[in-house]
TrEMBL record:
Protein's recorded name: Peptidase S58 family protein
Gene source species: Evtepia gabavorous
Family recorded in the similarity comment: Belongs to the peptidase S58 family.
One MF annotation (Gene Ontology) recorded for this entry: aminopeptidase activity
Lineage, broadest ranks: Bacteria, Bacillati, Bacillota, Clostridia, Eubacteriales
InterPro entries in alphabetical order: ArgJ-like_dom_sf (IPR016117), Peptidase_S58_DmpA (IPR005321)
């Protein structure tokens, strides 16, 4: 197994746009020829678009783009801009009078970071899709959906840190598997089982251990998420691979890839998380689905870490590199 750049996986390209002053942005994962796609939603407070069609019993054959976006539910508008651009260039399913691009999306909450008045919209999605069509290298940290990401919010904003978007990809023979993940977690990010970044302790230099803090305070405070933490936590991402899979296998791949979130973020899949992973498959490589899943989970886990390491301090949220 060897590492590779995610944009080297054939059939996929990536585009991002961000507004650093507003603290938000969106990321487009593009598959112009269409990718067999599955989704797995684990968080208790998700925000998604067109995911029902990914159910293996539905007749949606392929997806042309996945959008990861800030702006909470408002950010779903970015997908409309992606559709507009793809229609202009003839990407989508042919319905005789036009083409209809199949575009799915997932959102994260960044409205309290930067300016809540500016959210990803159709114009931003259009520009991000244009960038994806140029097939540029993927940028990590404060880019796209990672712009407004923060982590370690369990103790409040003053103890939180800057999150970000990251990517990781592996090659094993002809098989290629990668992941793009935006980490906006309530809790901590771990590397090799050790807290790397997250909720800081009173000194501001160490970590409080979000899981331990939640357990210690969960009985005394029945709804530890009430008020300022509700809806602010999410890990969203997309696995891409050149493995040949059907929709049921792609759906299972998205589910197995969630193991990467469970290993890299604690706590994960909480009540007010919107954790969601897509899996897009475009290629002819025959591979054991379990082997693909192992690589996908590892890519998700490492993409989370890479996004946090690449993030820069912004709007008062300290980044790992400045701690």
């Amino acid at each position: 197994m060897e590492r590779m750049m995610i944009h080297e996986i054939p059939g996929f390209s990536f585009g991002q746009v961000q507004d650093l002053a507003a603290g938000t942005g969106c990321t487009v994962i593009l598959c112009p020829e269409g990718g067999v796609t599955g989704v797995d939603v684990r968080g208790g407070s998700p925000g998604t678009r067109d995911t029902d069609a990914l159910n293996p019993v539905c007749n949606r054959e392929v997806v042309h783009a996945v959008v990861l976006t800030g702006g909470s539910a408002f950010g779903l508008d970015a997908a409309g801009g992606v559709m507009k651009k793809l229609e202009e260039v003839g990407v989508g399913r042919d319905v005789m009078v036009t083409v209809v691009p199949n575009v799915c999306a997932a959102v994260l909450f960044d409205l309290k970071f930067g300016s809540m008045e500016i959210r990803p919209d159709g114009a931003m999605g259009y520009v991000a899709c244009e960038a994806a069509l140029r097939e540029l290298p993927f940028q990590e940290g404060n880019f796209g959906a990672g712009t407004g990401c923060t982590i370690g919010k369990i103790r409040g904003a003053q103890f939180s840190m800057k999150g970000g978007i990251g990517a990781c990809a592996f090659r094993q023979g002809d098989l290629m598997v990668g992941a793009v993940v935006a980490c906006n977690a309530m809790g901590d990010v771990l590397e090799n089982g050790t807290i790397l970044a997250g909720a800081r302790d009173d000194s501001g230099r160490g970590f409080a251990d979000s899981e331990a803090w939640l357990v210690a305070h969960g009985q005394r405070q029945r709804d530890v998420f009430s008020g300022k933490l509700v809806g602010e936590n999410t890990v969203i991402g997309c696995v891409v691979t050149n493995a040949a899979m059907n929709k049921a296998q792609a759906t299972k791949l998205a589910a197995v890839a969630q193991n990467g979130i469970a290993r890299g973020v604690r706590p994960a899949n909480a009540t007010f998380d919107g954790d969601c992973l897509f899996a897009m498959c475009h290629g002819t490589v025959q591979a054991d689905p379990d082997a693909v899943g192992i690589l996908a989970a590892r890519a998700v886990e490492e993409a989370i870490v890479r996004g946090v390491k690449a993030a820069e301090s912004l709007h008062g949220r300290i980044a790992l590199r400045d701690l």
